[in-house]
Structure formats: structure tokens, C-alpha cells
Amino acid sequence: MESLNFVKGYGKVNPAEDNPNSPPNHYRRRRRRIIAIFLAVFLTVVIASLITALIHESATESEESEPSQLASNSAESLKTVCSVTRYPDSCFASISPLNSPPSNNPFRFFNLSLHASLLEVSSLKSQLTEQKGDPAMKDCGELFDDAASELGRSAELICVGPGEKVFTEMRISDLQTWVSAAMTDLDTCLEGLAEMGSTAVSEFKLKVQKSQEYMSNTLAILNNIQSLFQKFGLTLP
Questions:
Q1: What is the pLDDT of residues 18-37, one digit of tens each?
Q2: Mean pLDDT computed over 35-58
Q3: Keywords in UniProt for this one (predicted)?
């Protein structure tokens, strides 16, 4: 029995026998399993974070590059729309500052041109305060009010409900009538100033002509709205 114990002493040592305080094998395996799971979860979180960061960076770069590209396309689109007018330079100059965020839709350009015309007529009315003593200017003030009202009605007309068409034949006809009437009001103002020998004719004529150009541009875009939508490959709203 002693020899057996002696041989046993040179065999594979069982740590549990040498160190009674060491944890059993199944506890150590469980600990290693927990550590492995923790490392796997940690690596998953790190990888997911890196992927999220890359996606965010890519999206940020796309957002930073998109506005300039969109603005470029919008500018070319606006030039195309303004090319149908008699005054393409004033058309571009009047619409471009209002085109924010940039758009390349002919309907929006028409809307902005109409809005620019209304702003310009309102500006004319505010400048009449400098010529209070001139009777002809009083008549012009009333004509400017009429023109602003007609342009305002035009703006209201293109505000339609969901599913309702904007450019019906009847609406286009009404828009043409009201914008043309607003242009006539300005012509009448200039004629009245000339007939009464007003000293404000030469100074005021240039300002009125600017408004007339804006209205002429609006009317030209309206008259070509269907062909413009076809050129852009869009459906007429």
C-alpha cells in the first residue's frame, strides 16, 4: 500500500487534492464562460458603435454636399423657366432670393414670381408718402391698391386643397385676367402722371417699370406652365 501511494505521488497532480481551498473545475469553467460572453458583448458594442459612427459620418457628408448640388440644379432650372419671359434677368433676380430652400419646380417658381410682383407693388405704395402733394400720385395710390388686391387674389387662387388641381383651364384663365389687370393699373398710373405733367414721372417711371417687368415675367411663366412641366418631366399639378 505504501508503494502504491508512492507511485501515486508521481502521477498527474489533482489541484483540488493539493489545494483544498481552490474552486472546483466546474466553477472555473463557468467563470471562463462568463468572461468569454462579456468579451463577445463588449466587442459587439464596439463594432456597432464604429458602424454607427461611419453611417453618421457618411450621412453628414451627404447632407453637406447635397445643398450645393441642389442649389446648382435649382439655379439652372430657374434659368430655364426665366428663359420663356421677356425679361429673363429680372426674372432670375426677383425669384432667386426668395427660392429658399432651393427648388427646381416650375410651380414654385411661378408662385415666387407672383409673390415678388406683389412685394414690388406694395413697395411702390409705400413710396407714395414722399409725394403727398401731387394729385396724380393719389390716383396712383388707388391703382396700386387695386393691383395689389388682384395679385393677392391670384395668390389665393393657387392655394388649393389636397387632391385638387391647381392649373385647371378656368384657374389659368382667371390668373391671366388678374395679373393682366394689375399690369394695366400700373400703365394707367404712368399715363395719369404724364397727362397731369407731374414732376414725379421720370423718377417714378423706372420704379413702376420694374414692377411691370415682374408681372410680365409672372404672366409669361403662367402662359408656358404646361410646356415647362413637360420639359422638367413633371406632372402638372
A1: 555 555 555 556 666 665 55
A2: 46
A3: Disulfide bond, Glycoprotein, Membrane, Signal, Transmembrane, Transmembrane helix
Using one digit for the tens of pLDDT, what is the confidence trace for 144-170?
999 999 999 999 999 988 888 999 999
**Cα dist from 130 to 125, 141, 203, whole Å:** 10, 12, 12
CB 119 within 8 A of CB 136: no
> Tens of pLDDT along 5-19?
433 443 444 544 455
Cβ-contact 212, 183 below 8 angstroms: yes
Place of cell 392649373: 167
Q: How far is CA 109 from CA 62, 82, 106, 114, in A?
A: 26, 9, 5, 9
Separation between Cα atoms, residue 31 and residue 33, nearest integer Å: 5
- Name which of 95, 97, 115 is nearest 105 in CA terms: 95
Q: Tell me the C-alpha distance between 79 and 98, whole Å.
A: 15
User: Whose grid coordinates read 400720385?
Assistant: 137
Contact assessment for residue 79 and residue 88, using Cβ atoms and an 8 Å cutoff: yes
Q: Which amino acid is at 2?
A: E
* Closest residue by Cα to residue 151 from 218, 223, 224, 237: 218
Q: Which helix (H) or strand (E) holds 227?
A: helix 225-231
Query: What's the predicted TM-score (pTM) here?
Result: 0.67
